[in-house]
Design goal:
With 123 residues, this protein is an alpha+beta fold. It is 16% helix and 51% strand. It starts with 5 loop residues before the first helix and ends in a 7-residue tail after the last strand.
């Protein structure tokens, strides 16, 4: 069942914009993240850390080149989960899934994102 996932929807909207640093205003004081990023062909990197890790991740990203599409979302208590895809100029680039754990005020405490061009989930 697909559900509205307001926090991750806003997160990826910010990430797709000219000002992705706005996600820094969405994180909790005890924020921790891991982004598993595959370029395909066995080439991958992991970005980890707290706020400083997110700042470093944002600094190396291309701005306003990818569009995230959330195809399936679910909410379970303090968790939001999504499966989606990124496109570049309308063409498929990668599939991703993301899980966010939120605190009582709705800020992101934990974030786990995995991305690969090797597997395409078609809506």
């Amino acid at each position: 069942m697909t559900a509205t996932v307001p926090v991750l929807t806003r997160w990826f909207t910010y990430m797709d914009s000219d000002d992705p640093d706005r996600v820094l205003g969405m994180i909790a004081e005890d924020f921790a993240m891991s982004v598993q990023f595959s370029k395909g062909g066995g080439q991958s990197a992991e970005f980890v850390g707290d706020r400083d890790g997110l700042v470093a991740y944002l600094a190396q990203r291309e701005k306003s080149t990818l569009t995230h599409h959330i195809d399936v979302g679910a909410v379970s208590g303090e968790y939001e989960l999504v499966v989606g895809r990124t496109t570049r100029a309308g063409a498929f680039e990668a599939s991703f899934n993301a899980t966010a754990q939120l605190n009582a005020s709705g800020a992101v405490r934990r974030l786990l994102i995995a991305r690969t061009p090797e597997v395409a989930f078609t809506p």
